[in-house]
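Comment thread on ticket #2218

A.B. wrote:
> Attaching the input chain for the structure job we discussed in standup.
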Amino acid sequence: MTEKILVVDDDKLVNEFVEETLTRSGFDVTTAMSGEDALELMAIEDFDLILSDVRMPRMDGIQLLKKIRREAPATTVIMITAYGTVKNAVEAMKLGAFDYVLKPFSPDELEITVKKALEFHELKTENELLRTEIGRRYSFENIVGKNKNLTEMFDLVKVAADSRATILITGESGTGKELFAKAVHYNSPRKNKVFVRVNCASLPENLIESELFGHERGAFTGAIKQTKGRFELADGGTLLLDEISELPLALQAKLLRVLQEHEFERVGSGTPIKVDVRVIATSNRNLRAEISEGNFREDLYYRINVIQLELPPLRARRDDIPELVDHFIGKYNEENSRTIQGVDKKALRLLMDYHWPGNVRELENIIQRGVVTGKGDLLTENDLPGYIALGDTIDTGSIRLPMPVSIAELEKQAIFEALKFTSGNRTKAADVLGITSRTLRNKLSEYGVKRKVATVEDDGE
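C.D. wrote:
> Ran it. Output below, let me know if you need it in another format.
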């Protein structure tokens, strides 16, 4: 599509020169002799780029720029200026102009500046479309489910999204905690700022502080340059602290200070850095129990638990399964150019009867696989994993232990059975067991199990 350009200059010769140069370069060019004429043209059609002289009678280029910013904020603007008005052009750039060209300018100079401006305009337009698409994807209306427990949360989340309050989202693994966190962000006043996620369970303890707060060059071995942490990167936006219960106690104290004082120090620095970050925390653990066991600070709990959302497991909202199945079939049909129409009655009954230890995430994975590998118009029992028909995740009858047996040995056997059941996938095994990936890693390390032996495939660990 040919880009539309509007040239505004009270000098007819300048207008004709710019029009001829840019038309020869393949652009659709319109000219105006005044700011008032330009506004009338803008009311009739949209322009990708406007070149405006700084000095014009009645309405000058600065006044026109301010009106463009209000009435057509997506339009990119270049100022045309003479040597004596460069200061005005610089002021225009502070007000949102992309660049300026200094009279007299050559055709090559003009073309280069215009092409750079149009590249910027295209990138800005693409980012805006992407932002709109992301906002649509994470709108509250797009969260599938009409279960009473879930829908009651929507009103609370909508109110919470507009506030600055810290939010704690709890629930089993796979219930959609991150989806809700993104819905809060993309429906808040911070939606045009960054959303930064850090998985507290996946970071080695010796790197968590640096990951959150950054570090100075030379702060520790391997710190070869100054690095910003997640809090600094999320300034103005939202920071998701996924599985916050996995933070060591020493880091919990530092996090509490950031939440209270809105400032922190990089590792190796004594200079405080102020930030404006909205924190959302998630946990699949009972934090009150963690407090009782001395694993989580009570003062931090109350600081992050201003608003709490407790997401129900899928087995507690079975009435949502048919709608979720249809949603995932549509999603993966589109991604894989498939035309699966739905599931047959027997397959749906099996899905409804299964108890879903991996919750919505497990259901999505099963439907994705069925859509990709399904042979007919409908997904059948044959398109589902065999264990769905069994209705159980682990065949406990196959476990044979000498009696009496210690709790530690029972725990060890449960871990090995979960790994066997998930074909060595540690992330899925942790979900089945109701523990974090880090806890599973630590347990396997205690048993002397090497990663290569225990893991066939890791899904996002």
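A.B. wrote:
> Thanks. Noting for the ticket: The longest helix spans residues 107-137.
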